[in-house]
Amino acid sequence: MARCELTGKGTTMGRRISINRSQVSKRAKRTVKPNIKTVRFETTGGDFIKLNVSTSYIRTLKKKGIL
């Protein structure tokens, strides 16, 4: 199962809704998976570590100036 190692964001459940004209006719279960990428981070000692991070959190890290 894909999971962000920094935020803990993982797979969630949702519903797929079929709409015919103005009525909801069917509801089916579906899974929503986060977009996970592998990113290299530099430690204080100069070494690099790889972490699986969601793309929404990568955007936040860039905004804060960490990446």
Which short descriptors sum up this protein?
67 residues; two-stranded antiparallel sheet; 15% helix; 4 strands; 1 helix
Task: Write a structural description.
With 67 residues, the chain is mostly beta strands. The chain has one domain (12-64). The protein is built from 1 helix and 4 strands, in the order ββββα. The strands form 2 sheets. A two-stranded antiparallel ribbon has the order 1-2. Strand 1 and strand 2 form a beta hairpin. It starts with 11 loop residues before the first strand and ends with a helix. The mean pLDDT is 92.
- Extract low-pLDDT stretches: none
H-E order:
EEEEH
Give the beta-strand count: 4
Number of domains: 1
State the shape: elongated
> Largest beta sheet: what is the strand line-up?
1-2
Provide the residue-averaged pLDDT. Answer: 92
> What share of the residues does DSSP label as strand, in percent?
over 45%
Radius of gyration: 18 Å
Fraction of helical residues: 10-25%
Structural class: mainly beta
Output the number of helix runs. 1
Largest sheet: 2 strands, antiparallel
* CA(first)-CA(last) distance: 25 Å
